[in-house]
Design goal:
There is one protein chain. With 245 residues, the chain is α/β, with parallel strands linked by helices. The chain has eleven helices and seven strands. The strands form two sheets. A five-stranded parallel beta sheet has the order 2-3-1-4-7, sandwiched between helices. A two-stranded antiparallel sheet has the order 5-6. A hairpin with a 6-residue loop joins strand 5 and strand 6. Helix 3 packs across helix 11, helix 4 crosses helix 5 and helix 6 runs parallel beside helix 7. The radius of gyration is 18 Å and the shape is globular. The N terminus is likely disordered. The structure holds adenosine-5'-diphosphate (2 copies).
Length: 245
C-alpha cells in the first residue's frame, strides 16, 4: 500500500479508507504526478483526487494560461508557443513549479497535472529533492483524443472542465458553479491537437520508461502505474483510486 510507511507509525489499528485519509488520520502525504497525452482526462480526474485527498492541483497549463490572460511578461513569452501546441522551455517551467511547491498548501501533498513533460523536467524534480509517492499514466489512443478535445469546454476562472457530450454542464455553455459562460481553448482545434499529440509522443511519452526504470531501481522512487483512460469518468476514477492504494 502506497502510504504504508506513514500508516504503520500513526494508526496501526485504523482501517484504511481511501476516500478521506486526511479526515481519518490528520496526516497523510499524497504527492502525485498524472501523466498522459492532452485530453487523457488528467484535469478531470485531478479535480476529483484533489477534492478527496485535500491537496492542491498544480496544473502548469492553467498557470501559463492565467499568465497569458493577465498579459504578464511570462504570459507574453509563452503565448505563441502555447498557441502552436509546442512546449515552453524546461528552465522556465521548472522554476515555476518549484516556486509553487514551496507554498504552505503543498505541505501535505500536491497533484501535478501536466508536469513533468520532458526528461529534464522529471530529472529536475529528483535533483531538487522533491519526493513523489506515485506516478500514474492515463492511457488513451490518439483518435479518441481528437474527438475529446473538439468537445472540451472550460470555465476560465476556475479551470473546471466539461465535455459537450461526455460531461456536459447542467445548462449548455454555462459553468455549473458560477453560471458564467464556458470557452473553447484555442489550442483544442484539430490541427493544433495533432501537433500536441506528436510533441507528446516525442517528448513526454519517454517518461513512461523513465519512471518504470526508476521504480525498479530505487526503493524511494515513486510507484508507477498505468490506467486505461477509456470509459465512463467514474470507471476511470475507480481505476485511479486503485492505482493510488
Ligand atoms: P492539456 O491539459 O491539454 O494536456 P495543458 O493545459 O497541460 O494541456 O498545457 C497547455 C500548454 O501549456 C501546452 O501545450 C504547453 O504549451 C504548455 N505547457 C504546460 N505544461 C508544460 C510543461 N510542463 N512543459 C512545457 N510546456 C508546458
Ligand atoms: P487533460 O487534462 O488530460 O488534457 P481533460 O481532463 O481536460 O484532459 O479532458 C479532455 C476532455 O475529455 C474534456 O472535455 C473532458 O470532459 C473529456 N473527458 C475526460 N475524461 C473522459 C472520459 N473518461 N470519457 C470521455 N471524455 C472524457
Amino acid at each position: 500500500m502506497l502510504f504504508a510507511k506513514y500508516w504503520v507509525f500513526l494508526v496501526a489499528d485504523t482501517p484504511f479508507k481511501w476516500q478521506k485519509p486526511l479526515e481519518n488520520l490528520g496526516i497523510a502525504l499524497m504527492r502525485v504526478i498524472l501523466l498522459g497525452p492532452p485530453g487523457a482526462g488528467k484535469g478531470t480526474q485531478a479535480q476529483f483526487i484533489t477534492e478527496q485527498y485535500s491537496v492542491p492541483q498544480i496544473s502548469t497549463g492553467d498557470m501559463l494560461r492565467a499568465a497569458v490572460k493577465a498579459g504578464s511578461a511570462l504570459g507574453l513569452e509563452v503565448k505563441g508557443i502555447m498557441a502552436s501546441g509546442g512546449l515552453v522551455s524546461d528552465e522556465l517551467i521548472i522554476s515555476l513549479v518549484k516556486e509553487r511547491i514551496s507554498h504552505a498548501d503543498c505541505e501535505r501533498g500536491f497533484l501535478l497535472d501536466g508536469f513533468p513533460r520532458t526528461i529534464p523536467q522529471a530529472q529536475a524534480i529528483i535533483d531538487a529533492g522533491i519526493i513523489i509517492d506515485a506516478v500514474v499514466e492515463i492511457r488513451v489512443e490518439d483518435n479518441e483524443i481528437v474527438s475529446r478535445l473538439s468537445g472540451r469546454r472550460v470555465h476560465e476562472g476556475s479551470g473546471r472542465i466539461y465535455h459537450i457530450h461526455h460531461n456536459p454542464p447542467t445548462t449548455a455553455g454555462m459553468d455549473n458553479e458560477t453560471g458564467e459562460p464556458l470557452m473553447q481553448r484555442p489550442d483544442d482545434l484539430e490541427e493544433t491537437v495533432r501537433n500536441r499529440l506528436s510533441v507528446y509522443h516525442m517528448q513526454t511519452q519517454p517518461l513512461v520508461q523513465f519512471y518504470t526504470e526508476l521504480a525498479s531501481s530505487d526503493n524511494i522512487a515513486p510507484k508507477f502505474s498505468t490506467v486505461d483512460g477509456l470509459g465512463l469518468l467514474d470507471d476511470v476514477q475507480a481505476r485511479l483510486v486503485a492505482a493510488l492504494q
